[in-house]
Amino acid sequence: MKVSVIMPVYNISRHNFLNDAVVSFLKQDYKDKELIIINDGSTDNTEEMIRNVKDKHIRCINLEYNGGQGNAQNIGIAESTGELITLLDDDDYLEPGSLSCRADCFKENVDFVCGNYAEVYINKRNIKPICNSQEDAINRIWQEPGVIGTQTLMWRKRLFESVGWFNTEVSSAEDWDWKIRILNECTGYFIPNVVYNYRYHDKMRSALHRNSGELMNNKAKVIKKLKGKYD
Q: Is the pTM of this model over 0.85?
C-alpha cells in the first residue's frame, strides 16, 4: 500500500530544520511513498525554499492564504494518492524505518497503527513512553493529549469518510480533536517502535500558542464539541 506523508509549512524561515525533515523522508526504506508539502500562505520566502526541494516522491502545493494547520492537512490529504496517511512537521524528522514498520502492520481489521516517539532537545533525546493498548489511550487522552504523538499515527485514508476531517475551527489542538475521534471510532494496533522525532525549540508553533493562551482556548473548544459525543 502506498503511504502519503503530509507536511504543512508556514513561514519556515523562522527555523532551519526543513532539510532534516525532507531527508528523513527520502531515507525511508519504504518504496511506495510520497511527501506532499503544503505551503499554508506563508509571508516569507517559504515558497522559494520549498521550490528547491525536488524529488520524484515529493509534491508541493502553495495556498494563497493562511487557513491554519487543520485546513492545510485536509487539503494535503485530499490531494494524496496513498491508501495510508501520516503526518510530518517541518521542524521534526522521521525515525529510520518509520514508514515500513507501521505500514507492515496493517491487516484487514486494523484502521490505524500507533508507534512511539522521541522528544529531541538541544542536548538530549528522550524516548516517550506510550500507551500499549487502545483502552489505556482512550482513558488517558482527555487529560494527556501528548500521550499519543499525532505524527506517530498512520491510518487508512478512507477513515475520513466516517470519522471526519481535521477540525478547521481551531488554530491549534486540531490534532488532539482528531486523536480522540480516531481512538473512539476505529480499531488500532500499537507497536513499541520509535517512529518519530519531535523537536523542541523556541520557535515551535505549539509553544507560541501555549504562551499566548491560544492553545488552552482551543482545547476548551475541542472538549465542548466532543464531550457530548463520547463517554
A: yes
Q: Provide CB contacts within 8 A for 67, sequence distance 6+.
A: 40, 41, 75, 168
Which residues does 80 contact at the CB level (< 8 Å), separation at least 6?
4, 6, 34, 36, 157
Percent of the chain with pLDDT over 90: 68
Torsion angle defined by CA atoms of residues 183, 187, 193 and 198, in that order, rounded to the nearest 10 degrees: -30
Pairwise CA distance, residues 45 & 170, whole Å: 26
Question: What is the arithmetic mean of pLDDT over 194-216?
Answer: 74
Residues 83 and 156: beta-carbon distance below 8 Å: yes
Q: Is the pLDDT of residue 69 over 70?
A: yes
Residue positions counted in the chain: 231
Rounded CA-CA distance 73/79 in Å is 10
CATH of 3-226, one of 3.90.550.10, 1.20.1420.30, 1.20.1250.20, 3.40.190.170: 3.90.550.10
